[in-house]
C-alpha cells in the first residue's frame, strides 16, 4: 500500500494564501470608495480586516491542536458543543460552501481568460478548468499541493511586480495621503462598517488548513506558524494592492467599478494592462479553486467516517485522496457553472460561514474552561483579547448581514434547518454519535 502524503509547512502556507486571495481584493474597492473618500481610511479597512483574520487564526491554531482531526468547523463544533451543530456546519460545507465559490471562480476564470484569448468560450473554459483541477487532485495530495505551491508563488510574484511597477510608473498627481483627524473620521462612519463586511469576506479562507489537519506534517509545529504567517502575507499583499489601486487611479474612476484591477493596470501598464491583470487574476483563481478542492472534500470524508449513512463518502485512494468527496464537490460546481443558478446561494453563504466561524471562536472559552481535547503545546496568542476582538467584530457583521440582507440570511438559516432534519435522520442509523467517546 502506498504511503499517504503529508502536507509540509510550505504547502500549508500556500494552501491558506491561495484560498484567501480571490476575487474580493480585485473587485470590492470600487464599492468602498462610494462612501469613503479618504485614502488613509480606505487602507485602514484592509489593515483592520487582516487583523481580525489574524485574531481568528490564533484561536484556530489552538483548537486545531486540541482537536487534531481534519474537518475544520465540523470537527471543532462537534467536539465543543454537540455533534448536531458540527453536522450542520459540515452540511453547509459539503453542499455549497466550497462548491459555490469554486463555480463562481471558474466562471470568472473563463471571463478573464477570454480577455487574453477571445477565441475561447468562457463557459467551456470554466468546465475544462474544473476537469483539470479535479484530475490533478485525484492523482495525489503531493501532486495537488505541488501545483498549489507553484501557482501561489507565481501569484505572489506577479502581485509584487504589480505593486513595485505601480510605484515606479504611475501618474500619482491626483494622489493625496494626509493623516489627520479629518482623514481618519470616516473610520467611525457607517460606510466604514459596511465596507468592513466585504473586506472580511475577501480575507475568508485563513482557516482552510484546519480542514486537512490529519494530513499536515507535524501539526503541533506547523499549524500555528502556517496560519499566522499565511494570514500576515495576505494582509501585506492586500494593503499593498489597494494602495497601488489608489495611487495609480483617481477615486472617481473606481466608483462602482468591479474591474478595478484592470482599470489600475491600464493606467500603470497602458493598453496591455487589462491582459496583464487578467493573467494575474486567472492564476489567483486557479490557485483558489485548487485549494478549495483540497480542503472541501476532507470535510465530506470525515462526515462519511462519522455517519454510516454517508459511509460511501469516506472512500479514499491508497494515497489518502478522498475520491468520492472530491468528485461529489466537483459535480456540484459543474452543475452550478452550467446552470448559473447559484447567485443567491453565494450571497447567503457569507452569513452562514460567518456564523459558524463566530461560534467556533466562542468555543475556545468553553474548551479552556472545561479542559476539552488534548493539552496543546500552543496557546492562543494574546488571549483573551484577540478572541474577544474577533467575536465582537464578527458578531457585529452577522447581525449587520441579517439586517441588510434578510432574505439571503433567512435562506441561510433555512439551509441550516434542512441540515438539522438530515442530521436526525442519519443519527438513527448510527449506534453512537461521532466524537462522543473522544
Biggest sheet descriptor: none
CA radius of gyration is 21 Å
Helix run count? 19
Specify the overall morphology.
globular
Determine the structural class based on helices, strands and strand pairing. mainly alpha
Q: How far is the first residue's CA from the last residue's CA? A: 28 Å
Beta strand %: under 5%
The helix/strand series, from N terminus to C terminus, equals HHHHHHHHHHHHHHHHHHH
Mean pLDDT: 84
Question: Could you give the count of β-strands?
Answer: 0
Helicity range of the residues? Answer: over 70%
Return residue spans where pLDDT drops below 50 for at least 5 consecutive residues: none
Notes on the protein architecture:
This protein is mainly α and 438 residues long. It has helices at 9-20, 23-27, 29-35, 39-66, 73-80, 83-97, 99-116, 122-139, 141-169, 181-184, 190-202, 219-248, 251-254, 260-269, 273-306, 323-339, 343-370, 385-404, 406-427. It is globular, with a radius of gyration of 21 Å. The protein contains 19 helices and no strands. The mean pLDDT is 84.
Key structural traits:
single chain; 438 residues; mainly alpha; 74% helix; globular
Task: Please provide a brief summary of the model.
With 438 residues, the protein is an all-alpha fold. It is built from 19 helices and no strands. The longest helix is centred in the middle third of the chain and has 34 residues, at 273-306.
Amino acid at each position: 500500500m502506498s504511503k499517504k502524503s503529508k502536507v509540509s509547512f510550505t504547502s500549508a502556507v500556500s494552501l491558506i494564501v491561495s484560498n484567501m486571495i480571490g476575487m474580493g481584493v480585485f473587485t470590492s474597492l470600487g464599492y468602498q470608495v462610494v462612501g469613503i473618500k479618504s485614502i488613509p481610511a480606505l487602507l485602514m479597512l484592509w489593515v483592520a480586516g487582516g487583523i481580525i483574520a489574524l485574531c481568528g487564526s490564533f484561536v484556530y491554531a489552538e483548537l486545531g491542536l486540541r482537536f487534531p482531526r481534519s474537518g475544520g468547523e465540523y470537527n471543532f463544533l462537534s467536539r465543543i458543543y454537540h455533534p448536531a451543530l458540527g453536522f450542520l456546519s459540515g452540511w453547509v460545507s459539503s453542499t455549497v460552501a466550497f462548491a459555490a465559490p469554486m463555480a463562481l471562480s471558474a466562471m470568472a476564470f473563463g471571463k478573464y481568460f477570454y480577455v487574453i484569448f477571445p477565441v475561447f468560450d468562457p463557459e467551456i473554459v470554466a468546465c475544462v478548468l474544473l476537469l483539470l483541477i479535479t484530475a490533478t487532485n485525484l492523482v495525489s495530495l503531493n501532486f495537488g499541493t505541488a501545483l498549489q505551491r507553484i501557482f501561489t508563488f507565481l501569484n505572489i510574484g506577479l502581485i509584487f511586480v504589480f505593486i513595485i511597477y505601480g510605484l515606479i510608473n504611475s501618474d500619482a498627481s491626483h494622489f493625496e495621503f494626509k493623516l489627520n483627524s479629518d482623514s481618519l473620521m470616516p473610520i467611525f462612519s457607517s460606510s466604514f462598517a459596511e465596507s468592513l463586511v466585504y473586506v472580511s469576506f475577501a480575507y475568508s479562507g485563513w482557516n482552510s488548513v484546519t480542514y486537512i489537519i490529519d494530513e499536515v506534517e507535524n501539526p503541533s509545529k506547523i499549524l500555528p506558524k502556517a496560519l499566522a504567517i499565511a494570514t500576515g502575507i495576505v494582509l501585506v499583499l492586500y494593503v499593498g494592492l489597494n494602495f497601488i489601486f489608489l495611487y495609480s487611479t483617481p477615486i472617481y474612476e473606481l466608483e462602482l467599478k468591479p474591474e478595478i484591477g484592470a482599470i489600475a493596470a491600464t493606467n500603470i501598464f497602458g493598453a496591455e494592462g487589462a491582459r496583464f491583470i487578467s493573467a494575474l487574476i486567472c492564476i489567483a483563481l486557479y490557485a483558489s479553486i485548487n485549494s478549495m478542492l483540497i480542503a472541501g472534500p476532507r470535510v465530506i470524508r470525515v462526515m462519511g467516517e462519522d455517519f454510516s449513512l454517508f459511509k460511501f463518502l469516506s472512500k479514499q485512494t491508497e494515497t489518502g485522496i478522498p475520491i468520492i468527496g472530491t468528485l461529489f464537490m466537483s459535480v456540484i460546481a459543474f452543475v452550478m457553472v452550467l446552470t448559473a443558478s447559484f447567485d443567491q446561494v453565494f450571497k447567503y453563504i457569507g452569513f452562514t460561514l460567518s456564523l459558524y466561524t463566530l461560534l467556533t471562536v466562542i468555543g475556545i472559552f468553553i474548551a479552556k474552561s472545561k479542559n476539552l481535547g488534548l493539552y496543546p503545546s500552543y496557546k492562543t496568542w494574546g488571549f483573551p483579547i484577540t478572541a474577544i476582538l474577533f467575536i465582537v467584530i464578527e458578531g457585529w457583521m452577522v447581525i449587520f448581514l441579517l439586517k441588510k440582507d434578510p432574505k439571503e440570511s433567512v435562506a441561510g438559516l433555512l439551509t441550516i434547518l434542512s441540515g438539522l432534519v438530515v442530521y436526525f435522520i442519519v443519527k438513527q442509523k448510527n449506534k453512537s454519535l461521532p466524537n462522543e467517546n473522544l
